[in-house]
């Protein structure tokens, strides 16, 4: 059986010709990764034994073997991070596998215009992620003390009979929660708008739950930015300044990068 081909990412052939691809063992931990130049685009790939890496085995492992999945996903990310240090890279999704080099070649050549356009859009840029975490107890205290809507509700409750007050205080707690969420979103939106001024492109992603983050505080915002390399220092300085101002409200910011252009390369899947 022909060797299958595992595709990590795509880089400009001109950059590949200027910088040697580092030695790295591939997905099966046996075959090395290597470059396959195809006109203006070079594919970074490794070979897989088609008798071993069948579609059914990959599906079974991804659905039922968490240790295998974590190990292989880390390997995929590690290779992309290595490429990202040397080249402008379009990162491909985990487990993008072709039946042979011929099918991969056909796919890339058929999408060459789109791929070169994508390379051009991310050239000389870095992708950065900013997450905002909220200590809701601190923010709730600030909101509860300074929010006019809540203050008006407290005054209204104080004029009621003890029996009515009991039920209205429950409504007050619900009001505080709503105002907390509103305040947190407004603060995070202000941060995002401020940081967006440094970016070529920016987007908002889904927040992670506490199980995914492993943190006690809540994720209030999750955003991603595509930056010109000469703007990165100013961007990170702004993150630091913003965090200092927001700290007394219980907000912490976490900026990470540079990442391969996972979000802005627009080519997470290749046609097969």
Q: How many E strands?
A: 9
Order of helices and strands: EHEEHHEEHHEHHHEHEHE
Largest sheet data:
5 strands, antiparallel
Number of helices: 10
Helix content: 40-55%
Structural class: alpha+beta
Radius of gyration, Cα only, in angstroms?
A: 25 Å
Which quaternary structure do these chains form? single chain
- Whole-number total of structural domains: 2
Which consecutive residue ranges, at least 5 long each, have pLDDT under 50?
Answer: none
Distance between the termini: 19 Å
Shape: elongated
Give structural notes.
- The protein is of the alpha+beta class and 272 residues long.
- The chain has 10 helices and 9 strands.
- Strands 1, 2, 3, 4 and 5 form a 5-stranded antiparallel β-sheet that branches. A 4-stranded antiparallel β-sheet has the order 7-8-6-9.
- Strand 2 (34-38) and strand 3 (41-48) form a beta hairpin.
- 26% of the residues are buried.
Question: What features would you highlight for this structure?
Answer:
alpha+beta; 5-stranded antiparallel sheet; 4-stranded antiparallel sheet; 9 strands
């Amino acid at each position: 059986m022909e060797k299958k081909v595992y595709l990590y990412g795509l880089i400009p052939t001109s950059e590949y010709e200027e910088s040697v691809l580092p030695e790295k063992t591939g997905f099966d931990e046996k075959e090395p990764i290597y470059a396959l130049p195809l006109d203006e685009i070079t594919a970074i790939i490794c070979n897989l034994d088609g008798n071993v890496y069948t579609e059914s085995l990959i599906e079974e492992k991804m659905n039922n073997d968490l240790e295998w999945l974590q190990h292989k996903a880390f390997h995929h990310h590690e290779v992309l991070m290595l490429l990202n240090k040397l080249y402008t890279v379009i990162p491909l999704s985990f487990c993008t596998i072709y039946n042979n080099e011929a099918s991969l070649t056909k796919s890339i050549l058929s999408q060459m215009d789109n791929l070169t356009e994508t390379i051009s859009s991310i050239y000389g840029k870095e992708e950065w992620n900013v997450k905002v975490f909220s200590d809701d107890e601190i923010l709730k205290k600030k909101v509860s003390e300074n929010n006019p809507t809540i203050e008006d509700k407290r005054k209204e409750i104080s004029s009621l009979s003890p029996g009515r007050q009991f039920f209205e205080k429950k409504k007050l707690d619900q009001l505080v929660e709503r105002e907390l969420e509103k305040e947190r979103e407004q603060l995070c939106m202000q941060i995002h708008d401020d940081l967006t001024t440094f970016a070529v492109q920016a987007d908002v992603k889904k927040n992670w739950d506490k199980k995914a983050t492993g943190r006690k505080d809540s994720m209030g915002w999750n955003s991603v930015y595509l930056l010109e390399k000469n703007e990165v220092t100013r961007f990170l300085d702004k993150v630091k300044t913003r965090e200092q101002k927001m700290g007394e409200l219980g907000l912490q910011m976490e900026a990470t990068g540079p990442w391969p252009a996972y979000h802005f390369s627009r080519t997470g899947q290749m046609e097969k």
